[in-house]
Amino acid sequence: MDGWLGVLIMLVLGVGFAAVMIGLSVLLGPKNPTPEKLAPYECGMPAVGDARERHSVKFYLVAMIFLLFDIEIAFLYPWAVALRDLGWPGLMQIVTFFMILSVGYLYVWRKGALDWAPAARARNALRRGPRKAA
Amino acid sequence: MDLRFAVQLGIIGLTFFMLINASAVLVLAERKIMGFMQQRYGPYLVGPHGMLQPLADIVKLLFKEELRPKAADKWLFNLAPILSVAAAFTAFATVPWGAETTFFGLLDDPVSLGVADLNVGVLVIFAVTSMGVYGIVLAGWASNSKYSLLGGLRASAQMISYELSYATALAAVILLAGSLSVREVVDAQSGYWLGFIPRWYVFLQPVGFIIYVIAGVAETNRAPFDFPEAEQELVAGYNTEYSAVRFALFPQAEYINMATMSAVATDLYLGGWHGPFLEQYGLGWLWFLMKVGLILFTYIWVRWTVPRYRYDQLMNFGWKWLFPAAVINLIVTAALVLYFNA
Fold first, then answer.
1. Closest in B71, B117, B338 to A88, CB measured
2. Would you call B62 and A28 a contact, using CB atoms and an 8 Å cutoff?
3. For residue A40, which of B83, B77, B19 has the smallest C-alpha distance?
4. Helix (H) or strand (E) holding B97
5. Which residue has the higher pLDDT, B39 or B236?
6. Over the range B268-305, which residues count as b (16 or more CB within 10 Å of their CB) and which as e?
7. Which of B129, B21, B116 is nearest to A17 (CA)?
8. Which of B21, B137, B139, B161 shows the smallest number of beta carbons within 10 Å?
């Protein structure tokens, strides 16, 4: 049996187990819904608006940057497996690849896309003085 | 349906059953170890020394009321815990936990002890672990509550940030072994140097091991990186609107992820099932269990010892310290491998 069939069986077993547990709970549990119980939680007060409002763009930025470096790592794996055949020229080539990507990484770092605390940037800005128009 | 196929199905079933038990036992182990570290006993009354506590917990959770907030998205709300648990189980499928065996001559060809013997195992581990992020994001989104959404977004941002270091640390290991297959990586760690030092990759890659463990802890939202579940900040984060079994499936997925991280660390860094004395009797899997247990104990130990990170400290550490360290580790390992012509 090829290995992939085992992975599929585990996946089906996992999904089945979770579904059976949820089904059992729905069957066995009491059902007394009241408006208070069904309302979303907001520290004990009635919720103001739902959660489909705007949220910070930092999360989107992190995801985009993760995507770029994830592709880089995807290129890394075949190189790592074939390193002994590629030898020193292969190492130089991957270092060049990394250097190019690290220029992007440094840009992202310096522009502050990796900062989650604007206070740190504000503190540094105070130390450095007013920034020239970028 | 020949005997070999039946035996393989049996091994898959055994692994699945053991994983479910593992999550239950880990709940108890965590509470007992936490208790002892806090100078108290932990669960003590249910069963001998509290050993039936997980069973009591599961029975209680089954009989609780299943609530779904009116504003929540019905299908996604139900799908999120299923996705989390399915990804957790599937990730363990790629990890072999014992050597190949013929069960003392019962079979003609040896069968490998483990669910799947893939020749791209490391890549599949990485891929399926990434799928686990979906469950958490969906839970936060589907609950339609501000706490849940923020918790889900923060959790997913944390998990994907640490996946880069995780994958790069693993890349250094497959560089040493020259193969993506987990079984071949373990077999490359058999034997001894100087007769008594085992050829484990943790000795060749100490920095890589530390990077892997830190990234693994952050991946599973545990220990000092458990911001998504930080009760003080986010109530229960993405879990806020969940009750009863749907709630319980999230910690279960988390504990199975812990077990998978420990198993992968054991296979890739600590020599898997290799060890003195037991292997010739076909009991290598006992060594595997012992090593996995050691790493799991370290997980729990770290959780109840160190304080929690602040979220921006966490993200800073992952992006600005751990990822460059992992990349430098990889390049230096590659240069050393080429220099020594290993």
1. B338
2. yes
3. B77
4. strand B96-101
5. B39
6. bbbbbbbbeeebeebebbbbbbebbeebbeebbeebee
7. B21
8. B21
Q: Is the Cβ of B212 closer than 8 Å to some Cβ of chain A?
A: no
CA B149-B167-B165 angle, to 5 degrees, is 70
Higher pLDDT, residue A47 or B192: B192
Please indicate whether residue B196 or residue B161 has the higher confidence score (pLDDT): B161
Q: Which residues of B79-109 are buried (b: 16+ CB within 10 A; e: fewer)?
A: bbbbbbbbbbbbbbbbbbbbbebeeeeeeee
- Model pLDDT for residues A38-60, shown as the tens digit of each residue: 666 666 566 666 656 777 788 88
Q: Which amino acid, B5?
A: F
Question: In angstroms, rounded to a whole number, what is the distance separating the alpha carbons of residues B58 and B52?
Answer: 10
Q: Which two tokens stand for residue B77?
A: 């709300």
User: Which residue of B lies nearest to A25 if distances are taken between CA atoms?
Assistant: B62
> How many Å apart are CA B104 and CA B115, to the nearest integer?
20
ipTM of the complex as predicted: 0.87
Asked whether residue B158 carries a pLDDT value surpassing 80, the answer given is: yes
In this predicted structure, the answer to whether residue B276 has a pLDDT above a threshold of 90 is no
* Amino acid type, B264: V
